[in-house]
Design brief:
alpha/beta; Rossmann fold; two-stranded parallel ribbon; 11% strand; globular
Length: 215
């Protein structure tokens, strides 16, 4: 078995800035799987949401960490959700980068070109043997949209994507307390091929983005 390398052991100073724990756990597993590199706690920084790079104390902390890493000849990677509008989110972040005079490269989930988020990625890289689970979920959403509730003027709300991914794993993992723990974002194992396909072509854009720094 190959020994996993730490960033420092190969003289790399890459720091990744993400929104939350879901991004952190996925990227740690993906980079470990693809490049045999183990990210440490200081290698990936959570910002608690993209709006936090613009204001509050956390913004100053993020800017300081980026600036310090640049001063140390390091590379900063910012990987955030595109959400509903890829072009608008890219424009806003690029504008902030210019205003603050920071140096970092940008990748927006799901594929650096379309609207979406980390959950969009996860939905598209499931083990295809498990597709029937999402087919059931689709029927559930169709059913909700077709129903009306007495005294309610608004349509029923379909569950968020996070809930969909949670439901996908819950259907496969079972009902014990330990199994329920494995469903949580921080505990998921994306290298488990029973659930996920890290070789999926859907990840080609991410792979190309990371290759420059990790391959």
């Amino acid at each position: 078995m190959k020994q996993k390398l730490k960033l420092d052991s190969i003289d790399m100073k890459v720091r990744i800035f993400v929104e939350g724990i879901a991004d952190t756990k996925f990227l740690k597993d993906y980079i470990s799987y693809k490049y045999n590199i183990q990210l440490e706690k200081e290698d990936i920084i959570e910002t608690d949401g993209w709006t936090n790079i613009y204001s509050n104390d956390n913004s100053e902390l993020i800017k300081n960490k980026m600036a310090q890493n640049t001063d140390d000849d390091g590379v900063n990677l910012l990987i955030f959700d595109a959400d509903n509008n890829f072009s608008e989110r890219l424009k806003n972040i690029a504008s902030w980068r210019q205003k603050t005079n920071l140096n970092f490269e940008i990748f927006l989930w799901p594929n650096n070109s379309d609207a979406g988020d980390i959950e969009t990625v996860l939905e598209n890289i499931i083990n295809t043997d498990n597709t029937p689970i999402f087919n059931c979920w689709k029927n559930y959403e169709i059913c909700l949209r077709s129903k009306s509730i007495k005294g309610r003027t608004n349509p029923l709300t379909t569950p968020a994507k996070k809930t969909k991914i949670y439901g996908y794993l819950e259907a496969l993992l079972g009902e014990t307390k330990s199994q329920k723990q494995r469903i949580k974002e921080r505990n998921r194992n994306y290298k488990n091929t029973e659930f996920w396909d890290l070789d999926s072509g859907y990840l080609n854009a991410l792979n190309a983005f990371l290759d420059k720094h990790f391959s």
